């Protein structure tokens, strides 16, 4: 992953936001339902999706934490069109967790956008989550690294814990499965049928292209982000956080060692 940008302050955007792209597509299915493959497919069709990697690179995770706390805990100002525009002004598709938790708000903010609800069998979804994302969350090293590398690992860890606390109380069993089913019911309840496509990876290009009214690409439909790939990415993230932690601790310990050495030299010179 490339270096993060500074955190965006929503308060710095009091004027009307000028979008470089209009929001055209809202992908409101949960992660591990073909989201990464769908994002790549959207790129091949000419769209520019706003995905987790973009939120990480642009340092938007703390902003989405604010949005989550405002909606689900009543802390802060609820997000509307202005706040969504600030973070997505250079994109035309929005997808993945936690954006999909704001389906009602996004559908209202962007009334001309269509909605894709990417689905998966709930039992297979939960098994996949526990073999990948939830398995990664259980690595004990994160508990220390969130403090020794706050600007990378700390933001990510805080964001993931908050996201899944809201979704399922960080209970990765039956409660999580029930929340998954409820999420899909909630999306269907708020999105008009004429704006909604329910889709699975196995459906491929045809229903997507017909729904979006674009030509079907000649390439095979992308198949990305299997479990091993996802775990490998987080191994890289953890190793990077360890390297950054060593540097961060060095910045703290070096001055202390210098002071200690100076004091020792001073004491050694006393008669």
Task: List the main descriptive attributes of the protein structure presented here.
single chain, 271 residues, alpha/beta, 5-stranded parallel sheet, 5 strands
Order of strands, widest sheet: 2-3-1-4-5
Regions with little confidence, pLDDT below 50 for 5+ residues: 263-268
Say what oligomer this is: single chain
Total beta-strand segments:
5
Describe the protein's architecture and organization:
By secondary structure, the protein is α/β, with parallel strands linked by helices. Helices cover 57% and strands 6% of the residues. Strands 2-3-1-4-5 form a 5-stranded parallel β-sheet, sandwiched between helices. α6 packs across α10, α8 (141-148) packs across α9 (150-168) and α8 (141-148) crosses α12. The chain is globular, with a radius of gyration of 22 Å.
What order do the helices and strands come in, and which of them pair?
Layout: E1 25-27, H1 35-44, E2 49-50, H2 52-57, H3 61-73, H4 81-88, E3 93-95, H5 103-109, E4 114-118, H6 122-131, H7 133-137, H8 141-148, H9 150-168, H10 174-190, E5 196-199, H11 205-212, H12 227-269
Parallel strand pairs: 1-3, 1-4, 2-3, 4-5
Helix pairs in contact: 3-9, 6-10, 8-9, 8-12
In short:
The protein has 271 residues and is an alpha/beta fold. The protein has helices spanning 35-44, 52-57, 61-73, 81-88, 103-109, 122-131, 133-137, 141-148, 150-168, 174-190, 205-212, 227-269, and strands at residues 25-27, 49-50, 93-95, 114-118, 196-199.
